[in-house]
Amino acid sequence: MDGKRESEPNAMKNPTTLERKSERELVVTRTFNGPARIVFEAWTKPELLKQWWTPKSLGITFVSCEADVRTGGTYRFVFSHPDFEQPMAFHGRYIEVTPNSRIVWTNEESADGPISTVTFEETDGKTLLILHELYSSKKALDDAIESGSTGTSAAGEQFELLDELLVTLVK
Amino acid sequence: MHLALGLPLHPARLCYILNHMVQYRPAQLDVSFAALSDATRRGILEQLERADSSITDLAEKFDMTLTGMKKHVGVLEQAGFVTTEKVGRVRTCKLGMHRLVEEAAWIERYRRHWDARFDELDKIVEELKRAERVDGRKKRK
What we know:
The structure holds two protein chains of two kinds.
Chain A: H1 2-7, E1 16-22, E2 25-32, H2 36-44, H3 46-52, E3 61-67, E4 74-80, E5 88-98, E6 102-106, E7 115-123, E8 126-134, H4 138-151, H5 155-170
Antiparallel strand pairs in A: 1-2, 2-8, 3-4, 4-5, 5-6, 6-7, 7-8
Chain B: H1 11-24, H2 26-36, H3 39-50, E1 53-54, H4 55-61, H5 66-78, E2 82-87, E3 90-95, H6 99-140
Antiparallel strand pairs in B: 1-3, 2-3
Helix pairs in contact in B: 2-5, 4-5
């Protein structure tokens, strides 16, 4: 059974959803076929986190990854990207860490960074992961979207994505 | 570049934008509906879909005073359907990439970003599960 899963990785793939829940909130969800303690472990151990946080399609790679995942602890992720000479550092504090169920952290690389909360809810051996990003204001989220929309991607690519999205919505 | 997009009158796109707005931007929805409620303004959008135009050109085409046309363009600009740029004395109008279209595209990109991450996380979860099973068997022995 395991062999089949490996040869057809997409057969088991669970969907990822992302929604702007309000003017200052984004919510991402995904279900994993494993218990919460395992998903929590993969999120909190730097040597495991490093293995999934930078998939190839993102174009970034880890230079270093420090994460002291406990209430009051800090993290610092440093990435390199072929288009940028200088590495980029993302850092912040863990405001709350409840083992196997909830992590809350700040994103302090920019003044208006959101507060992120991830929760792990286990049912029948599967885990629903909910990632919630709360921005300080509507403007902070609008600005994040605007800089992301115009900074890194050509409009053409955006519209290709959007067209694909529309196809799925119209169905 | 905007010509091929057919913005904002393509029904599927408009429908998607409006859906999006109903969820969390009722005020924006009012502004956008109001902007589209006028036949002249819809005509202006159709015209701009064919080519960028100056306010003077649009005023002539729609047989209107410059002041009247400025008002219409102002309404469309406020709703995000049109952007204008003044070069010298001429103000050129073009179809705006609607803020909400941009936002929807960004959200989809950001979703894919997490989706790609979570595909990798899936693999780690499988590895850890397998390791636990092996550990469990060892312990029982």
